[in-house]
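We emphasize that the prediction below concerns an isolated chain of 232 residues; any contacts that depend on oligomerization or on bound cofactors are therefore not represented. The input was used exactly as deposited, without trimming of termini.
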Amino acid sequence: MKAFILAAGRGERMRPLTDHTPKPLLLAGGKPLIVWHLERLAAAGFRDIVINHAHLGEQIEAALGDGSRWGLHIRYSAEPPGALETAGGIANALPLLGSKAFLVVNGDIWCDIDFGHFSGSTVAGTKLPSGAAGAHLVMVANPAHHAGGDFSLDGQRVIYAKGEQTLTYAGVGVFSPAFFADVEPGTVMKLRPLLDAAIAAGTLTGEHHAGRWVDVGTPQRLAQLDQELKGH
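Result of the prediction step, given as a token string:
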């Protein structure tokens, strides 16, 4: 399975830190955020990684190179200034991702998820998407800054947020290429409309990750994570 890391965002909420450094290269615990992902992916047996970029993307390529230092093979999907949003960015990179389901990881999160969990054809008894236009999302407890959550789980089926039993999409999921079949390359498009369509079609599954997860969206949360990791 290939993995795709989303790294094209401008990081407006992280300014001024992101004025001169792309958000995935900001340091936490002594290493760039994206390197935590690369190390975990390599440890889990992943080898082929695709990373998209836009804002200061040349810095990302210069810092990570071809990925050989982690035993990985990294290829890059460059986007125009302003980037293409999540669905647009993934659709744009499909020629590099191939015909099989792939793992997607947001570049601006930190998590202790074992990515090897996704290397088989099933997760927790749920068949991962392959040829069908499906997806499997990792969900986490709602953080304080997103208390309302995104969705709920009915068993392993993702449904619209219901009552108090809501969860937040962790920015980690497995997607089939067919999930993005109707998104023209170069289109600016968010992921949520495709997730809504999959909920309606009953092709969106998910699971709850109870471990550590941080949406590193502000300088304050980055500083807190940095102190936490340095304390280990």
